[in-house]
């Protein structure tokens, strides 16, 4: 019999980890690596009213399907051009993914274990990194996790199989509309391998493939048909060949060797990577029991296929980035929840797992203690609120001491409660100290402020060799500009008879060869040199001005 969901336990777990995301998501400007780009695309979608294809500063930008852009655009439509509104979908996807992991864990674990799985995922390094910004991967993770949950319930013979089948195929379609073919490919690799290894018989009956194909056709086919009507074969080539096939083969975008993800698996799940061996040990102990139910074997085999197939698919693909590992984290978090459940309900705790737990505790408490001092670590000249930081540090110190005391006494329930308090305190620390400090380094808003103060009202702004985030920031903050195709065209700007300005960018503070070339012509001068979002910008003006 399937255990009850236990909604109060879910809400309590979300309440404990909520500060990690509520306090650190809505209190900063647009950041790199992707927020400004996504904001600019969504704002332009609202301006031109085209909800089929995506554009960035009037240039076709079919790198991804439009679902995530739709979500951001809806938030901007409701709340206006606000930085925090851009991250509203990310926050909702984060809460949704955490709830899905609780539901997945609750199939096999108690409410305590499911709470532990949710908390494990919420405090993993990569999950924290990606889900504090408007990045398409947090939407992809939600739909991939939803598809995996629906598939498991469907093949396990849950009540209302048609509803689970509809949810599975809808989640597959929405994963495609979020990031293209990679989402469905990951799900089908894991689900297909698991099915082929255990339950191929009767698949045409329980998988409902024909209604599923109809759902995929309506959801995916509807957008593709609209895309074809708008741009025909050209748009299909840009989307399917350049931004899907070429990325898969490593011809476009970030790349890496087959072993690229091996170290990132360890770092992405920190600090819980330290306890994963204990969780795996607990799972093996359960499966070694002579009376281990078949449901347990099927469940953990499904989780193994999830990890193995996802990792293999990502490793074989030519395009690589560490954030692509995000959909791999839920089964690892469930293993962490299994270990938490075991510590509370069993007296059999191996000595080697205690060593790992002490290291885990020291690392978690040490990081929480260091967080209030991040402003001074980023900028040694920072002098503000040092007394407040010192007083605030007493809170994580107290929680860390309580956790240490409980661990020394083998009071596991008290230990995990103290760590939950430590996580909540860390969430408030993010909002009070960490995010404002990072904002001074990563914010792109100073770009808008500098242009607002230095652009003549009637000047025409041109950009040369700007990256996607800079272009997105210019669009979002209202500085529409034109792209200069080649630096040699600068003479054409001088002959236009209107005030002209040219914006150039570099990743290094004092190196921009194109600026030197413009100065050598004798026709241009530097009007402004400034930094924003870890980039350096030169605003060039004709000497005649």
Task: Describe the structure using short key phrases.
545 residues, 66% helix, globular, single chain, alpha/beta, two-stranded antiparallel ribbon, five-stranded mixed beta sheet
Tell me what you see in this structure.
The chain is an alpha/beta fold and about 550 residues long. Helices cover about 65% and strands about 5% of the residues. The protein is built from 24 helices and seven strands. The chain has helices at about 5-25, 35-50, 65-80, 85, 90-105, 110-120, 125-130, 135-155, 160-180, 180-200, 205, 210-250, 260-270, 275-290, 295-315, 330-345, 350-370, 375-380, 385-410, 410-440, 445-455, 470-475, 490-495, 515-520, and strands at about 55, 60, 460-465, 480-485, 500-505, 525-530, 535-540. The strands form two sheets. Strands 4-3-5-7-6 form a five-stranded mixed β-sheet, sandwiched between helices. Strands 1-2 form a two-stranded antiparallel sheet. Helix 22 (about 470-475) links the parallel strand 3 (about 460-465) and strand 4 (about 480-485). The longest helix has about 40 residues, at about 210-250. The chain is globular and about 85 Å long. The termini are far apart. The mean pLDDT is about 90.
Give a nutshell description of this structure.
With 545 residues, the protein is α/β, with parallel strands linked by helices. The chain is 66% helix and 6% strand. The model has no long low-confidence stretch (mean pLDDT 91).
Summarize the SSE layout with pairings.
Blueprint: H1 7-25, H2 35-48, E1 55-56, E2 59-60, H3 67-79, H4 83-86, H5 88-106, H6 111-122, H7 125-130, H8 136-155, H9 161-179, H10 182-198, H11 203-206, H12 209-248, H13 261-268, H14 276-288, H15 294-316, H16 329-345, H17 351-370, H18 374-378, H19 386-408, H20 412-442, H21 445-454, E3 460-464, H22 468-476, E4 482-483, H23 490-494, E5 500-506, H24 513-521, E6 524-532, E7 535-542
Parallel strand pairs: 3-4, 3-5
Antiparallel strand pairs: 1-2, 5-7, 6-7
Helix pairs in contact: 1-5, 1-6, 1-20, 2-3, 2-22, 5-6, 5-8, 5-16, 6-16, 8-9, 8-10, 9-10, 9-12, 10-15, 14-16, 17-19, 19-20
């Amino acid at each position: 019999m399937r255990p009850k969901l236990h909604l109060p336990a879910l809400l309590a777990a979300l309440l404990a980890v909520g500060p990690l995301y509520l306090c650190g998501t809505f209190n900063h400007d647009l950041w790199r690596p992707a927020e400004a780009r996504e904001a600019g695309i969504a704002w332009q979608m609202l301006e031109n009213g085209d909800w089929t294809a995506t554009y960035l500063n009037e240039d076709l930008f079919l790198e991804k399907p439009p679902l995530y852009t739709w979500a951001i655009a809806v938030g901007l439509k409701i709340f206006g051009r606000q930085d925090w509104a851009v991250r509203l979908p990310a926050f909702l996807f984060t809460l949704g993914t955490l709830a899905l992991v609780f539901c997945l864990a609750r199939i096999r674990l108690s409410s305590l274990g499911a709470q532990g799985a949710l908390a494990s995922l919420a405090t993993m390094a990569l999950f924290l990194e990606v889900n504090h910004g408007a990045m398409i991967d947090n939407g992809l993770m939600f739909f991939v996790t939803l598809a995996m949950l629906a598939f498991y319930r469907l093949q396990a013979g849950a009540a209302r199989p048609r509803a689970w089948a509809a949810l599975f195929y809808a989640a597959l379609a929405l994963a495609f509309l979020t990031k293209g073919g990679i989402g469905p490919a990951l799900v089908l690799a894991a689900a297909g391998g698991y099915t082929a290894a255990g339950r191929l018989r009767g698949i045409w009956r329980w998988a409902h493939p024909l209604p599923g194909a109809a759902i995929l056709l309506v959801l995916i086919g509807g957008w593709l048909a609209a895309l074809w009507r708008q741009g025909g074969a050209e748009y299909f080539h840009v989307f399917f060949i350049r931004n899907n096939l070429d990325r898969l083969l490593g011809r476009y975008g970030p790349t890496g060797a087959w072993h690229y993800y091996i170290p990132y698996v360890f770092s992405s799940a920190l600090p819980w990577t330290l306890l994963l061996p204990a969780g795996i040990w607990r799972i093996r102990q359960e499966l070694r029991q002579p009376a281990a139910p078949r449901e347990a074997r099927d469940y953990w085999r499904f989780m193994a296929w999830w990890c193995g197939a996802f990792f293999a698919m990502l490793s074989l693909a030519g395009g690589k980035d560490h954030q692509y590992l995000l959909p791999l984290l839920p089964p690892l978090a469930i293993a962490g929840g299994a270990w938490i459940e075991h510590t509370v309900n069993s007296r059999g705790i191996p000595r080697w797992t205690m060593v790992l737990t002490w290291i885990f505790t020291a690392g978690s408490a040490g990081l929480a203690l260091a967080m209030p001092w991040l402003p001074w670590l980023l900028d040694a000249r920072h002098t503000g609120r040092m007394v407040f930081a010192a007083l605030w540090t007493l809170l994580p110190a107290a929680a860390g001491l309580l956790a240490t005391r409980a661990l020394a006494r083998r009071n596991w329930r008290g230990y995990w409660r103290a760590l939950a308090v430590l996580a909540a305190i860390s969430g408030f620390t993010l909002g009070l100290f960490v995010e404002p400090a990072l904002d001074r380094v990563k914010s792109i808003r100073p770009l808008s402020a500098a242009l607002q103060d230095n652009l003549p009202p009637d000047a025409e702004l041109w950009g040369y060799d700007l990256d996607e985030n800079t272009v997105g920031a210019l669009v979002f903050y209202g500085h529409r500009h034109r792209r200069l195709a080649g630096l040699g065209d600068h003479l054409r700007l001088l002959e236009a008879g209107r005030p002209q300005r040219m914006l150039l960018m570099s990743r290094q503070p004092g190196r921009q060869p194109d600026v030197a070339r413009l100065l050598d012509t004798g026709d241009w001068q530097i009007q402004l040199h400034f930094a924003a979002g870890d980039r350096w910008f030169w605003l060039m003006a004709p000497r005649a001005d």
